[in-house]
Specification:
alpha+beta; Arc Repressor Mutant, subunit A; Beta-Lactamase; six-stranded antiparallel β-sheet; two-stranded antiparallel ribbon; 9 helices; 8 strands
């Protein structure tokens, strides 16, 4: 993640493609982080490493396309970006199929229910069902999260190819709280336990005072699709009860006609 105080080295991660028009457009669009609303021309130039003149010219084309919108003198992502993202079939089908089951689960447990998929070496939140003050919790749609210390991440890793697990173990296991799992050996043990219990847990590894339980989602042909998780305050979380509810829900979801 690019921190607000850092300018992005021009073309980072794009190789030779950074000098193409498409490469520059990508840098501009990816300059908007999840918590951003509006960005100035100067900030876009700083974050992308592209000159103000080039950012201004490309931004005008993105405005015409609807990928960006103006907010006074600043820019924000446009509705066209949301529209195109919503068309991604693999994610749209899973989200649409899971949502009614998630609503039922949230009504029963009164806790936050999240739907995640793996995107590279991270989790991507596709859907969140919550009510009242819970809706303001940091987890939100389109937010990314680590694989190694989230219950959904562990649930997905436990059933992922060995190459994926090895890549996670070879990278940095970032510490988010004092309780975060950062020892590769411990993570391997946890993944083995997930395969036995069929659910994963994390206790204050992501946020102090909260824990979560995650269960993988499979299609009827046993293809790993993602994971559902329930997040609850640690003091009231009944892990076995939440795990039972999740397992029952994902079992019904896997048999859903929308996923088959």
């Amino acid at each position: 993640m690019i921190m607000a105080s850092q300018a992005r080295p021009y073309g980072e991660g794009l190789g030779q493609g950074a000098n193409s028009v498409l490469g520059k457009v990508r840098l501009i669009l990816e300059a908007f982080r999840l918590d951003d609303v509006d960005l100035s021309l100067s900030e876009l130039s700083r974050r992308t490493g592209i000159s103000k003149a080039s950012v201004h010219r490309l931004a005008q084309e993105l405005l015409d396309w609807g990928m960006l919108e103006r907010s006074g003198q600043e820019y924000r992502l446009g509705m066209r970006a949301f529209e195109l993202g919503s068309r991604v079939p693999r994610y749209r089908v899973l989200r649409d199929a899971a949502r009614p089951f998630m609503e039922s689960l949230q009504f029963t447990t009164k806790e936050v229910v999240l739907l995640y998929v793996r995107d590279g070496m991270e989790l991507l939140c596709l859907e969140k069902i919550a009510s009242g003050p819970q809706a303001a919790r940091p987890s939100r749609i389109a937010r990314r999260a680590p694989l190694h210390c989230t219950s959904s991440g562990k649930a997905i890793l436990a059933y992922s190819p060995a190459s994926v697990v090895e890549e996670v173990l070879a990278g940095e296991l970032a510490r988010l709280t004092p309780s975060t799992t950062i020892a590769p050996g411990l993570l391997v043990e946890q993944l083995s336990k997930v395969r036995i219990n069929r659910y994963a847990t994390e206790m204050e590894e992501v946020a102090q005072g909260y824990c979560s339980v995650g269960v993988p989602i499979f299609s009827s042909s046993d293809f790993l699709l993602g994971a559902l998780s329930i997040v609850a305050p640690t003091f009231r979380a009944d892990v076995p009860k939440l795990a039972h509810a999740l397992l029952a829900t994902t079992s019904r979801l896997s048999r859903s006609s929308m996923l088959n």
